[in-house]
Amino acid sequence: MENELRNTVKNWLNDNIVFRKLGIHQMFGNDRIYWTFKWSSDYSENLDNHVNPFELLDDRIFDNWRTYSKDDLKIIFEEFQFFAVSKGLKFRKTDIKRHLKLCIENQEFVKIIKFDPKIELLINSERKRVKGTRTLAPGKRSPVNLSQGDTAYICNYITSNMVSPCYIIKDLERTYRVIYFTHLNKNLRETSGTKINGWGFATVYHNEIGTTPEQATANTYN
User: Fold this and answer.
1) Does residue 107 share a domain with residue 18?
2) Number of structural domains in the chain
3) Which structural domain, as residue segments, surrounds residue 26?
4) pTM of the prediction?
């Protein structure tokens, strides 16, 4: 009976629930697990076809997924119970909960979405405050040639001369779509702090970015 229950639980979890971790969260020391039911409108079978994992973040794919906690075990247990009753399966509730908890917390069904290792180097660096560099007028700037996967720097006029490291997600002919690493306060608003604890996305023209902090300051974007 014990083996039957274990196998039934495993098969049911595999068929009905999707568990994901984001490698970028792990780089920040966060080991959260996202999950949703496969029949939920928040899940798409195209999820695993994304070549660029940054698009999953940029498109906010996981915003409506649940972040697994002990309270979620009750939700999953109730769904499994409904399945078991519909199939005429008779297992003790305490045994079901034990096996569900074991399978989930052992992370047997958790898939990690991996990110470019370069990102960890950017996260472990700091934002830089540049002094003595003036912002150039757009007509006096030269385009900076970069490709997808390159790292660079951007400077937002709101944070003045504070420069953030960034990663090129896409080259869109005249613009770059980038993820940049910054300091956020408790309200998730960007500050002028140097310590990196979060990220944001931006679209910048080819002359609104730099390969050095100084060039990024000269090419400050709006």
Assistant:
1) yes
2) 2
3) 2-113
4) 0.88
